[in-house]
Amino acid sequence: MATINNLLITPTFECAGIVCDYTGTLSPVQPAYADLISSVGLPSADGVVLLEYRELGGLWKLGFPMWCDTRLSQFKGSIFWLKPNTSYEVRLTGNNELIGTFTTRNDNPPSNGNEVLVASTGDLTTALSSLTPRTKILLQSGNYNTNIFLQNVSGLVDNYITIGAAPNASPVLNGNVDFYLCNYLRLSGLAINGQVQIRGTDSPNFVYPYGNIIEDCAIKSSVQPIKLSYGVSGTLIQRNDLTINLSQWSPDISGVWWWKLAGEKGGRGDATKGDFVIRYNKVHGPAYDGFGGGEEDDFKTANNCDVYGNEVDYAYDDCVSVEGGMQNSRVWGNLCKQSAKAGIANCPVLIGPAYNFRNISNLTVQDRPDGSWSNKLGNNTLGRLYLFHNTSYGSHSMTQGPTATNNGLANLISRNNIWQGGRYVVEFGHSGDWQNNSMDYDLLYSSDPSRFVKVMNTQYTNIAAFRNFGQEIHGIQAEPKFKNPANLDFSLDTASPAINKGVILPFFNDSQSPYLYKDTAPDMGAIEYNEGVQPMVTFTGQVSAQAGVRPVSITITQPGGTVETISGATDANRNYSILYVQSMPGDYSAIAKASEDALYLEAISQPATFSIASPPPTKLPSTITLLVNIT
Fold first, then answer.
1. Do residues 318 and 276 lie in contact, with contact meaning Cβ atoms separated by under 8 Å?
2. 3-state secondary structure of 563
3. Is the predicted pLDDT of residue 622 greater than 50, yes or no?
4. I need a surface site. Which of 128, 415, 511, 576 has the fewest CB within 10 A?
5. Under the phi-then-psi rule, with left for phi > 0, alpha for psi from -120 to 50, and beta for the rest, what region is 272?
6. In terms of C-beta density within 10 A (0-12 exposed, 13-18 middle, 19 or more buried), how is residue 606 classed?
7. Residue 491 and residue 276: Cα distance in Å, rounded?
């Protein structure tokens, strides 16, 4: 039995990465894991060390088995669905026992100190020149025509420096924000016409900032709206509305872009600090990547990070590109509305394990000659990668499911996904693309009858042939039947063959997760049958007295104050209905307007409200029907 030592715990807000070293033999499987290892089809070595955790003083809970990485003689895995700012205990059991404690990070740290209210550019400049820890600078409504540059300025881990909007104010900053060598700063609630960047420095100083927050901002920029570079770690980017002000995509102009987060020499000194948490953001405009950066071939990049609940309107390359070491990196619940290349890119996963689940990729634009893929994989991926409960929809002849773009793919575990495309559903076509990979309980569908799956140099024209290769023993080859994919509704139709055909994945679709399956077995895909549909939102009151087709707009105020407008026109019966797809949890309000006549006089409805579950969201993304009836 394995003897374990050197326990390392890296918490974020809702997750924690666990790593330990081992020596000795990789047997037997822990009794508590025996059924799980068998039913899910995990390698037996993954069950040799038992992972348990609890809130301090609470009852022990079983965790998902850790990956046994024989290359590095380590066990490693993640704990999910934790509460922020809460203390926990973790226990690992092999031939011996290891116990450690940790506290998840606080996602709303206080700023209790000197409060400075500013009303002009001059006031802001003065306030920034005399910052001290605990200061809170609050901007009143108005335009501030200046850059914000701070260097070597730091708050405290339990008392941040905040630069944000005053209560009920809507300030606009016309300039860039640059936090250089700063820690524990928060930028909150501003409209910014410029770039926000957080950066450290490499040789000779190797100063790496930590713990900064960018939240609830509307940022418009002709370059990257948010940029992280040179050793920056522990950054929280949440609930921002990011717009790229370009007419077409440009290389590396992404919604959030990072570069050399491990430092030029891979010199980050504290292995307990994760790279970033990026959640509940929206990216508009022609992005290269929605979220991405480099250097992707550095094993110290993209470790201990979370990317979840985000939406990307369009990406020329990848909607979400998290690549590199990816030790205990987690990507879930993201919505890719349009991608010309890939929905999710994990190319490579050098260390692992990486978790990729409940993501939706819509691949319906053909802007690149080499086609589009649900998941960009390979490139010497030797670390464990879990693909659970993802949905990909491809409508043109060059769309595929998971695809290895470069040679080398190992240790992939794929379960309960839906991959629909117009070419190969799975293409791992290089000589080194099948090393200890396992696929089962997935729905695979290609509209091209001559192509189905390609592994190395062999084509499998149907699922029966792929089963003879030992894969997808419980998989399905059939059209998935989504409700309304043209309007981004990827919930399952009542006739979908994916209903009740998945496998139970403890901590991902059972009562220990926010995604509890409802019937006799889990459904395949990102959305459990009837899970993604919220109650209909109906606007009441006299909106227009005119018959016939009328222009209509619905103005939606999101949590945090960001405003979004949806425009359309009524049908001949004076009705207008739209599916509103949203990932960010919280309370929403909306008002409908309709044009009265040719003079475009507007009549306004009564306000309507709706909510999305929080936290963590159990319906990502949620689909809300907004119905306007003109009376």
1. no
2. strand
3. yes
4. 511
5. alpha
6. exposed
7. 30
Residue 300 per-residue DSSP state = T
Structure tokens at 304: 């201990």
Could you read off the pLDDT of 124-155 as tens digits, one per residue?
999 999 888 889 999 999 999 999 999 999 99
**pLDDT at res. 238:** 96
How is residue 108 written in tokens? Answer: 């709303």
Q: Of the candidates 477, 513, 82, which has an alpha carbon nearest to the alpha carbon of residue 333?
A: 513
Give the residue carrying structure tokens 């290359």: 71
**613: Cβ contacts below 8 Å, ≥ 6 apart:** 585, 619, 622
Q: How far is the C-alpha of 360 from the C-alpha of 512, rounded, in Å? A: 22
Strands 335-336 vs 622-629: parallel, antiparallel or unpaired: unpaired
Which residues lie below 8 Å from residue 77, measured CB to CB, with a gap of 6+?
Answer: 17, 18, 51, 63, 64, 65, 66, 67, 328, 353
pLDDT band at 281 (very low <50, low <70, confident <90, very high): very high
Count of CB atoms situated within 10 Å of the CB of 44: 15
Question: How high is the pLDDT of residue 585?
Answer: 73
Phi, psi (degrees; rounded to nearest 5) at 457: -100, 15
Q: How far apart are the C-alpha atoms of 3 and 126, rounded to whole Å?
A: 59
Asked if pLDDT for residue 561 goes beyond 80, the answer is no
| CA distance linking residue 136 with residue 126, whole number of Å | 13
Nearest to 544 by CA among 617, 628, 452, 630: 630
pLDDT digits (tens, 9 = 90+) for 176-223: 999 999 999 999 999 999 999 999 987 666 678 999 999 999 999 999
Q: For residues 509 and 389, give the distance between their C-alpha atoms in angstroms, rounded to a whole number.
A: 9
The CA distance from 386 to 379, in Å, is 16
pLDDT at residue number 304: 93
Asked, as a colleague might, if the bond just before 167 is cis with ω within 30 of 0, I would say: no
Rounded average pLDDT over 528-545: 57
- Averaging pLDDT over each range in 81-85, 258-262, 298-302, 483-487, which range is the top one? 81-85
